[in-house]
Amino acid sequence: MLADGCLIEGSVENSILFRGVTVKKGAVVKNSIIMQAVTIGENCHMDHVILDKGVTIRDGRTLTGYDGFPIILKKGTTI
Known about the structure:
There is one protein chain. The chain is mainly β. The termini are far apart. It is globular, with a radius of gyration of 11 Å. It has no helices and twelve strands. It has one domain (7-73): UDP N-Acetylglucosamine Acyltransferase, domain 1 (3 Solenoid), CATH 2.160.10. The strands form three sheets. Strands 1-4-7-10 form a four-stranded parallel β-sheet, with no helix packed on it. Strands 2-5-8-11 form a four-stranded parallel β-sheet, with no helix packed on it. Strands 3-6-9-12 form a four-stranded parallel β-sheet, with no helix packed on it. The chain has strands at 7-8, 11-13, 16-17, 22-23, 28-30, 33-34, 39-40, 45-47, 49-51, 56-57, 62-64, 71-73.
């Protein structure tokens, strides 16, 4: 499910993306909730994550949570 203003250059599966989310080339987002104004860099892999507003994930990062225990990053975090 994607909101208006999302820029998706990678792939998104079974996830919810709020307004203004950017998923750059080669990035994969699965089973996640991504809030407003989040940027996910090139070649990143996100699985079972919840990212609050304004989070920035730099190129090449991997975050993998579990079905009952997702990784949660608070507002404005940069990794």
